[in-house]
């Protein structure tokens, strides 16, 4: 019995050591990245519309290249209301469209399911203030990372230049995993660049490079300044509005494509 317990303990320890430690939240999957807006951050007086094109490329050990791309239509009005509309293919070949409307005027977030013409509503908190880039430009400790993590982060401010047709200021964050930290024979570096439009206060380009996962980019294209159509930020009159999941900060998984949120039938 003791021998079996010892073997099980060794196996569990080996499994934990094989997993890379979690880095700063801004480097994780789906993280906002340096210089990006905080969740639900309100920006008023700077209306625009455009298309976010997200691409990723990963090269496997045998030379196989995996490439993905998706697009999201985004619009923001002068009151800070934001609409995001994305369309993607499901594994079974169906086309699914998802629309999210963040309305700081009403203090609500609506997630629209065009297939069923149902809008799931939930209250949300909308903070205001400068983007994270402005908050973090002076002191890396503002990123709320422990000293050990901050020691492996290098932050740089890049000279302003034209990016996707607008003048943008850049920031670069390099995260280094020292040799031996996760069994790596040499140091591993991941680099995250963000280019922010100063007047619109949105990222117009981001690029994340990590030798473990490949390269991921986001480009804000087809950028148009000016007030979008007001109807984009309202629930269509032929939709049924239902209460969706959420919390104090408006967090929630939202509706599953083509169906109600979890727990609501």
Please provide a written account of the structure.
This protein has 265 residues and is mainly beta. The protein has a single domain (27-243), classed as outer membrane lipoprotein receptor (LolB), chain A (Clam), CATH 2.50.20.10. It is 10% helix and 42% strand. The chain has helices at 2-18, 132-136, 147-151; strands at 48-59, 65-76, 82-89, 95-103, 108-113, 118-123, 153-163, 166-177, 188-197, 202-210, 214-225, 240-243. Strand 7 and strand 8 form a beta hairpin. The longest helix has 17 residues, at 2-18. The chain is globular.
Structural category: mainly beta
Largest sheet: 12 strands, mixed
Total of DSSP H or I helical runs spanning 4+ residues: 3
**End-to-end distance:** 48 Å
Strand order within the widest beta sheet = 7-8-9-10-11-1-2-3-4-5-6-12
Mean pLDDT: 78
CATH superfamily: Lipoprotein localisation LolA/LolB/LppX
Spans with pLDDT under 50 lasting ≥5 residues?
A: 1-37, 131-143, 246-265
Q: Helix proportion of residues, in percent?
A: 10-25%
- How many individual domains? 1
The CATH topology turns out to be outer membrane lipoprotein receptor (LolB), chain A
**Secondary-structure element string:** HEEEEEEHHEEEEEE
In total, the number of strands is 12
* Strand content range: 35-45%
Q: Specify the overall morphology.
A: globular
Level-2 CATH architecture: Clam
Q: Regarding CATH, which class?
A: Mainly Beta
What is the CA-atom radius of gyration, in angstroms?
21 Å
């Amino acid at each position: 019995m003791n021998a079996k317990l010892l073997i099980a303990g060794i196996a569990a320890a080996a499994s934990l050591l094989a997993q890379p430690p979690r880095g700063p939240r801004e480097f994780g999957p789906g993280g906002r990245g340096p210089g990006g807006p905080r969740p639900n951050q309100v920006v008023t007086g700077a209306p625009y519309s455009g298309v976010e094109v997200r691409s990723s490329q990963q090269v496997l050990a045998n030379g196989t290249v995996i490439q993905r791309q998706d697009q999201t239509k985004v619009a923001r009005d002068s009151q800070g209301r934001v609409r995001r509309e994305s369309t993607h293919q499901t594994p079974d070949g169906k086309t699914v469209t998802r629309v999210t409307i963040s309305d700081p005027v009403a203090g609500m977030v609506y997630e629209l399911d065009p297939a069923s013409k149902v809008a799931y509503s939930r209250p949300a908190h909308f903070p205001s203030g400068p983007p994270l880039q402005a908050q973090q430009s002076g002191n890396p400790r503002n990123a709320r990372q422990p000293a050990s993590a901050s020691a492996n982060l290098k932050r740089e401010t890049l000279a302003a230049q034209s990016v996707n047709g607008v003048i943008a200021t850049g920031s670069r964050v390099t995260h280094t995993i020292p040799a031996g930290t996760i069994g790596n024979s040499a140091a591993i570096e991941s680099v995250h660049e963000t280019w922010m439009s100063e007047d619109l206060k949105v990222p117009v380009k981001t690029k994340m490079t990590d030798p473990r996962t490949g390269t991921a980019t986001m480009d804000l294209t087809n950028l148009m300044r000016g007030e979008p159509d007001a109807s984009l930020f309202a629930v269509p009159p032929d939709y049924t509005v239902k209460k969706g999941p959420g919390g104090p900060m408006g967090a929630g998984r939202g509706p599953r494509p083509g169906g109600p949120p979890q727990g609501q039938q």
